[in-house]
Each structure stands twice: as structure tokens, then as C-alpha cells.
Amino acid sequence: MQSLQAKASEWSGVDSADAFAIDDTNLFQKLGLQAFVNLSTNFYTRVYDDEQEWFRSIFANSKKEDAIQNQYEFFVQRMGGPSLYSQRKGHPALIGRHRPFPVTHEAAERWLHHMQQALESSSDIDEDSKRKMFNFFKHTAFFLVAGDELKKGQTQNPKP
Known about the structure:
The protein has 160 residues and is mostly helical. The protein has helices spanning 4-12, 16-19, 27-31, 33-48, 53-58, 64-78, 84-89, 94-97, 105-120, 127-152. Helix 9 packs antiparallel against helix 10 (127-152). It is globular and about 40 Å long.
């Protein structure tokens, strides 16, 4: 059976070395807290304004301000900063925390669409950091898809 990481690499097109290149540099020290707050705010503004109702509905039971805080605290923690997320919410446990949501290939692609736009419009993040971050986000999105399929006991083929 293929590991979740291997499926994530296959489906995302991002190998593990590129996905975890974020660990080569302390991005929190390089970019600072505000860059992560700005990125998450920009991202969730796009998500909550998405024209596709099926995608917006995934987030309908979450307050936008809470979603922003959860995301930037996780990013800060994962990219070299203080353990803000774990101090407030416990272990990130990404697959478990996303269990209530439909984490499909289509949802991952839509999430990544908004994240790519948010990154591209972030003037306080340099191009190399954007590339490393997007590779991590893409790999992680499909890691969550693989985890969702494992819990359902199914295999879904990615869209061509």
C-alpha cells in the first residue's frame, strides 16, 4: 500500500524534498509574523468570497476571523516560529482536524487556487519563499486528500 506522503507527492506533482524545502530556511525569521497574518487574511477573504457555493459551504460553520487565526498560527509554527497553534489548540493533527470537511481533489485544487492568488499578491513575501511555501501547501493539500480517502476506505483518482 502506498504511503500518504507518496500519494501526496504523486497527486500534487511535488516531491518530498521540494515540499519540505520550507525547512531549509526559517521562514518565520525571514518574513516575520505580519507576512503570515497578511497571507492568511488575503487567503480567507478569497475563500469566503468564492463564487462557487459548494466551496464556500465547506467553511460555512467557521468564523472567518477564527479560520485566519488558526491558519496563520499553524503556518508560523510550521515555518520556524513559536508554537502559537499548539499552545492554543493542541497538536495540529491535520488529517484529524480536517476530518469533518470534504477533502476531495476538487476541494484541494480550489483551496490551492486561492492560496496561489494570495501568495502572488503578497508583496511582503519574496519569490523564493513563495515557491517553497506553495510547494509545501500543494503537497500538504494532497496529503489531506489521501488521508481523507484512507478514512473512507476508498481510492479516488485525481483529475487529469
